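Hi D.,

Good news: the full-assembly prediction came through. Inputs first.
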Amino acid sequence: MSSKIESENKLFVKSHVPRDLLQNAALFKNEKLVIWEYVSNGLEYIEEGTNPIVFVTIDNRNKQISIKDNGRGMDWKGLQNFFIMHGENLDRKKGRPVRGMFGTGKSAAFGIAEVLRVRTVRNGKRSIVELLRSEVSKMNREDPIPVRTIDKEKPTEEENGTIIEIEDVHLQKLNQADVIKYIERHLAKWRNATVYVNNHECEISEPVSVSTYSFKPEGSLKDILGDVELTIRVAGEPLDKDLFGVSIYSNGIWHETTLAGIDGREMAQYIFGEIDVPKLDEDNSPITPFDLSRSMHLNPSNEIVRAIYTFIGSKADSVRRMLVKDEKERKASENAKKLAKQAESIADIINEDFQDFRSRLLKAKARGTKGFDTGTEKVSSGTNDDDLIFGSQIPAEIVEPQGDFGSEGGRRVSGKDPRTLSPQVTKGSPNSEKLGKPSNGEGNSSHSRGGFHVEFKPMSKDANRALYVGSERTIYINIEHPQLVCVFH
Ligand SMILES: Nc1ncnc2c1ncn2[C@@H]1O[C@H](COP(=O)(O)OP(=O)(O)OP(=O)(O)O)[C@@H](O)[C@H]1O
Ligand SMILES: [Mg+2]
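Then the structure:
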């Protein structure tokens, strides 16, 4: 009696178990979150030395899902522990780092379905238990929820393992592809895990990287994060939204993927990578890094999380800046190549015109002097009409006994004194006397041909739009001239 009075006078924190179960279940809003919850249990709670294999069956027609594992299974005591909401994780208690943390995953089925059935075998004993959402929601007291027992520790030959059966799913359609994608994303760091969804074996897929950078924290960041390594990879192409970013793990468990503030900046979508920070999992500070929402977002108010973001943000940004610079250079050189090509075509047009003019001039000269016609013979590089000078290597015809204009003494026509320079020659027929030689002294075509060159060049906005440098026979076009800027940038 006295203890009753005592308890009435004291206050206790209690929980309304049915509401607790259903409110936690509500966090598992879709099939991928629900299925992953039981798959991760199946991969995690295994006998030492077992390679975990989990089979997921999604039956869209009957609105059923099953998740079968080859884990350690549960005896009756194990099942009692399984049904404790927010139960302490026994593996963690023993110091084994596992993903399970909150003791709420078991409720996931009620986020989308009516029935949760657990068939489990441990050491030759099989138990089957069942819980219905309708029964849970009918309970309006904070009492424990009775679980229906179908079989209790019945002897069996079956191997250890558990099958979770979820029935009467309320979703209109179960999206298998979405489930597979979600599982594959989570499996990235899970060692030796095999998961089948219907007949599909989940694969770990990572984008292909073209370069990789490693960073270690220093100073105060190292004090907070420990001796960890941040790996930043660069993809060869921009990545999809769910693939870029640095994945944050703790003891191989994925918690978030982030670009830590550089999202949306130029080239950021090429960056991916990972960091594993075991200290995150060990954190016992009052502001915890994780919550039970399965949101895949860490708590930025936690000190370690903040330090991780700072570390990732600064390093990812330094890689990003490098990429931006490289990209600019690449574009510039591509642009330069394009400009050079354009310059070449302009030069070709000018030279063709010049060549035409030149041969017309030569013909006129020939007619006016000795009746010699240069003909329409095409000239080739290295032995162009314009490139030949008087010599003894190449068959040539003399078109003018005197030097060309540009020689000392002024233009030939108007020059007062006849010049004593060598005669002018043009390419002759093969039988002609060898009266010519290439103007550069060589017989090959490696020298620059006698025509004009065109070059695009940044020469400042105040300089001329174009400039001809006679000594180089080059026309420079100023790509920084205001009239050209918009064309070339
Ligand atoms: N497939 C399984 N095989 C063996 N034991 C299991 C299995 N699933 C769950 N358990 C046991 O039941 C406990 C409760 O599971 P539950 O998923 O609810 O919580 P948790 O995994 O500890 O934490 P979290 O809520 O973060 O997932 C687990 O800690 C584990 O001991
Ligand atoms: Mg769990």
